[in-house]
Fold this protein.
Amino acid sequence: SAHAPSPPAAAAGAAAPMPVLVAASHAPGHAWPVPGISPECPARVDAALTGAAAAGAAAPGPSTWPPASRAEIEAVHDGAYIEWLERASADAAASGRPTKAADSDDEVEFTYLTASTATDAALAAGACLHITRCVLSSPTPLLGLALVRPPGHHAARGRPAAPSGFCYINNVAVATAAAMRAGGVGRVAILDIDVHVGDGTASTFAADPAVLVLDVHEAGIWPGGGGVGETGEGEGVGATINVPLPRGAGD
């Protein structure tokens, strides 16, 4: 929120700003039990909401929405992986304690799993689906903003698949697949701005020329990749654009 730009001053006679529909999912059950250990925590959503409000995007949104269905998730992820995620969450519930699911060699930025992780991940993807459908079905232009946990851009398609970088289900990929399959959308552009490259999103759509993935990230850090020469798979695809920036690059 500290980096949220100030909304531009409205010019005389300018049109009213486009409405923004916001869905926020804090996923309080998906949290490491020791506060302050992991940066991936429910407070991230509060910080994002504060930044959105400062940028003029504080608008009423849905209080509830359905989780993404198994079919909607399996349009992106292998069914065996989703079954593993559900079993692992059930195991965490039975044991009464969360576990490290990936990146366990890092004492701070590890990927953890709790009793509610599978449910929370499906709900996060469901929020993105709901917002996408609202935007597509709106009779007037509408912006949608889904602020959800767990995040998703490191979660990849294919088998074997595993959680990575706090991510379990690729939320934007699930929404993209649904929009193109049932929403009548012919092409989608995904803009990913994060210090890390969205390797899961890029790999999911690397061979799909109808989905442009434009990724802005810091060069040369975890998880690797994201070079300017990575432009997608297959001859003439070219639907991936990577913009690796030097460390500390600002707006």
